[in-house]
Amino acid sequence: MSPSSYVEIPRPYLQCPNRFDVELAFPAASKARAEQHQRLAWELARIHDVEARTPYKVNPRWSIYEENWGNGQRHGWLNHRRLEVHGTPRALARYLAALNHVLTSIERLATRAARAFGCWRRSLLAQVSGHLDYEDPTTLRIRAKDFRAAALRHLTGFLAQGAPHPGHRDNSRPLWEQAAAVASEVWHETGGIDPWAVPEEDVEQQLARMDHTDLSIVDQQPAAPEPQADAVPVLPDTVEEFLVMSGPAHQAPREHVPAERPGAESGPGTLIGAWQLALQLPGELSRRPSVTVPPNPPHPDTPPARQDRQPAREVVAAGAPPDSDGRASQALVVLLGPRAAEDLPVPIR
């Protein structure tokens, strides 16, 4: 079976038990011609008792904005260049073997009908009858194209039941209105087409091309045996065996390190309160000069301070030795507000 230029037949695959699927493609240059071939393949699928459907093609330029408020892009449409066929192995193989033969024969008959139209257009009868008086070369090309499409459509309908009777032309009407009569005439002249006349070698060839792999079955790793409840764990004898049993280092669980908190008693970067420094390091504080924290300069956008706010109070840490005048000149002096100063566990002067 030689490949056809009208249809592309990929390798059928197993969709479910005893059911094979194949997606046909029609690579005709004209979209209308591809749709004609798809309609013929659909009619042949009905004859061979296999299921067929036209797939849906999604528009890549679609969006809800383009459809409602843009240029009216549709979400998608039926793809008439494709046809999905499903059936049993023997029926699908016979259908695919007959598709090339039937499609090629129908195209030859349609071409023969188109040549009959060309002979009539150049005949003296067509010139004298006046059917071409208002036709120019452009409209005649369109008439010939539509006539061939109509003849192919009628020839496709003859596959199931055959031509009803030999066609008879009516000379009082133009030939582009008599596509059914010309198609019937061509059908009877050539003897017609038998959609079941398929060589058995082609059927066996299509059966050999089918992929019997069930795509729904995926090779999986065998499940690990469940540990028994009464099993005693075996401890490794050496450190090397323990490291091998524990797995790679990058899969080991990470140790949780708590975040540093302000006011902690140890650790680098720990913040210690002024009164804690005074209680823990009285000797060191006594050797240091007094520290006075000046107030921050006011920001230009900061509102003025309230007049009823109490002034800052001097807080002297306990444990600092007084000077001769009775005041601790070497103690830590911190400018705090009245509420914060009351919360310190140190005497306030």
Structure description:
The chain is built from 11 helices and 9 strands. By secondary structure, it is α+β, with helices and mostly antiparallel strands. The protein has 2 domains: 13-214, no CATH class; 274-292 and 312-349, no CATH class. The strands form 3 sheets. It has a 5-stranded mixed β-sheet. Helix 1 runs parallel beside helix 5, helix 3 packs across helix 6 and helix 5 (137-161) packs across helix 6 (179-190). It is flat, with a radius of gyration of 48 Å.
Question: What layout of secondary structure does this protein have?
Answer:
Layout: E1 13-16, E2 19-25, H1 31-47, E3 51-53, E4 56-58, H2 64-68, E5 76-78, E6 82-87, H3 89-121, H4 124-129, H5 137-161, H6 179-190, H7 200-209, E7 211-214, H8 239-246, H9 274-280, H10 282-286, E8 313-316, E9 333-336, H11 338-342
Parallel strand pairs: 1-7
Antiparallel strand pairs: 1-2, 2-6, 3-6, 4-5, 8-9
In short:
The protein has 349 residues and is α+β, with helices and mostly antiparallel strands.
The secondary-structure class comes to: alpha+beta
Helix segment count?
11
Strand order of the largest sheet: 3-6-2-1-7
Report helical residue fraction.
25-40%
List unreliable stretches of 5+ residues.
215-220, 262-272, 314-320, 324-341
Number of extended strands: 9
- What are the secondary-structure elements, in order, as H or E? EEHEEHEEHHHHHEHHHEEH
Q: Characterize the main sheet.
A: 5 strands, mixed
How many domains make up the coordinates? 2
**CA-atom Rg in angstroms:** 48 Å
The overall average pLDDT, rounded, is 74
